[in-house]
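Researcher: Re-running this chain for the archive, since the previous output was lost when a drive failed. Same request as before.
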Amino acid sequence: MTCTYAFNGDADGLCALQQLRLSAAADGTAVGGELLVTGVKRDIALLERVQGGPDVTVTALDVSLDVNRAGLLALLDSGAAVRYFDHHFAGEIPQHPRLEAHIDPDAKVCTSILVDRHLGGRFRRWAAVGAFGDSLVDQGRMLSQEAGLSTEATDRLAKLGVAINYNDYGESIADLHVAPTDLAAEMLKYADPLEFESNSATFRRLANGYREDMELARRLEPSRKAPGAIVYELPDAAWARRSSGTLANDLAKAHAGNALAIVSHKTGGGYLVSLRVPGDAKVSAEAFCRRYPTGGGRRTAAGINHLPAEELEAFKTAFEEQFHVS
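Model: Regenerated structure tokens:
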């Protein structure tokens, strides 16, 4: 039997993966021989890379079913069994005897929380890390409280989640401080995320890199600003590509009540866009980004994987017109 995990390499995907692998190890199931399929944050069309067959089990984590629909159907047709945990827009969920779907697009849910529910809170501390990394601060604190953690320990998990999540933002694996598969291997050594945070040289590398990058990012000024709609355009540099998503989350907190667009240069031309909008916005971030061929996400956080250079000014105008508050 071949076991494959296809997962988003951000904090939510990694912490969902971590919980399932720790649970399998605790149950006496061999861990370490699985196939891992992942990539940078925006690299989510993963199931088309997975080899199917009747002796294959696949677990998909934190990647949109709608984006992976063709790959999913091909796997099911091949005889593979698929478990699917996700909180992004899914569209119509296929009804198939070999598909086990745990999908909930609620804005207060992330994939790590769905896995935590599935496992009955077995590795809740890692679920809290995933929630914090996915900017679900209230949920992260609630999970930490349920896990019996102190305020100091909870704050450590929050910083850990942010650092892990930040690491996966980049245009390619070469942009990242640590490849997601290497980070997954290092995390697997630690059943307790507090021990990972205290003892792992890999975490120290992430934390130092995050701090240095964000010091540069926080010096940026908006390139366009209107009441309710703010645009930041980042320079063409690896640190900027790494920091774009986390910077978007930080700026969303600093500019609460405003919609934010973070525009990053791509090495091959064009732009990558991260959007954050208030929860009560008339149009969701996901709906706005889906107007573009490579756009998608969820209600308050979404993005566009490729915006042609010649469309940038039109995008800024459309963004301002949509989210401007008079």
